[in-house]
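BUG-432 | component: ligand-complex export | severity: low

The export step for adenosine-5'-triphosphate jobs runs without errors, but we want the raw record kept on the ticket for reference. Input record follows.
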Amino acid sequence: MPRVLIIEDEYALAAALSTVVRRLGAEPVVAASGQGGLEKAQRQSFDAVLLDIGLPDMSGLKVLATLRAGSMPPPVMIITAHGTLDNALEARRLGAHDYFLKPLNLAEIQPQLRALLELPRSEVPQTASSPDPSIMIGDAPDMQKAFAVIAQACATPVPVLLTGQPGTGKTLAAEVIAAQSGPRTLVIFRSDEWPAEQAGAMLSQCLEKSKGGTLLIEEVGALSLPLQATLCRAMSMGEQRVLATSSLPLLEFIHQGRFREDLYYLLSVLHVAIPPLAGRTGDLPALAAALLKRAAPDRDLPLSQEAMAALKGYEWPGNVRELVTAMQHVVAVCATSPVLPRHLPEAIVNTAQESSHLDQALNRALVAWLDQKLTCAEALIPDYDTLLAQIEKPLLAELLARFEDKPTRLAAALNMNRATLRRKLRELLGKE
Ligand SMILES: Nc1ncnc2c1ncn2[C@@H]1O[C@H](COP(=O)(O)OP(=O)(O)OP(=O)(O)O)[C@@H](O)[C@H]1O
């Protein structure tokens, strides 16, 4: 069932709009503030948004800008009591789909909303300007590698496979490639979004619509085997450029017979591998600053060193998408600068506290252990290498287990000389 987000603080109007939405066979979700609306939009996807400009906590235009900054923004219909030309132009510039003045004529809204909901998401006009390559931030070596392939993909219209964990920026990268490759239409098909019985028809529609343009297939590993065959056939005809994203392990899927090997090779003429955010904490200062600017363009919100340390200590399971939300949280709760750890979402601060607790616990245990070792006659105090060996032994045993008992992988991951590691393993753990 399609879902419509209604961001409106006037209870009676929100209730009337909910009735219109239900009448169209869609599910209304109401938020009475801008921040509440943004949080709901982060948690689930919506097929349309009805947005009041005069909200109690922030301007609806700011909400619109934040919504439109997402990678696949829902179409937004603006409702306003202040119908200035400026607002209308700004709303259009920011990519609003429609603009209605209060008092609302519900009979006028209903057909417009119906038309919008009947359009497949991939066909909803994306009125916002095409992405600027400078919006993809990253300085880490792995990101630079990804950027090099993205640059090649912008210059040559070959199929591109973009892989990486959810939220790492695969869609953003694909949009940059499509936008920089020329003004051709971009049609987006999200494979895991459609029930099996509709997926075939939707894919055919998208293939048809994208002729002469670009088709972006998101989460390509979720395509059924028959639809993979359809895609292979379409790609051999070459009527459109195909870009595909995947956060699923396609090579494993090939071994399991769940993904066609020939399709994998057809798609991965160029392969952009986007690294997880936790592996590139060096990118956090620039990314966090840009995402804070994106969330609050007219505020200056530098991050304190403590807040940055907390960001760097966090695992980022949701990758950049989670950082986007975290920075929106900061904008909502931080009234003065700089941003302190207490302005960050709880999960991030808790992890930071936990890891500093663990560090303190390790220090305490080390002091107690040293006390015991050193409170004896000076002649009996172990030498430094013996002390170090005692610490290194459990450390190496634990590390090796985490890398499947493979010293080569462990050495590479720790940036350690392989011969040195092998010697230590032999001496300390008796491993050959
Ligand atoms: N390098 C980056 N610089 C700036 N913003 C980024 C970057 N990477 C991702 N983002 C932002 O993070 C959010 C998530 O990105 P995106 O949707 O492209 O991820 P994804 O890998 O396609 O996710 P999924 O696998 O769930 O489809 C978007 O708001 C995007 O603009």
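Assignee comment: Attached the raw record above. The chain has four domains: 3-123, 133-275, 281-348, 382-432.
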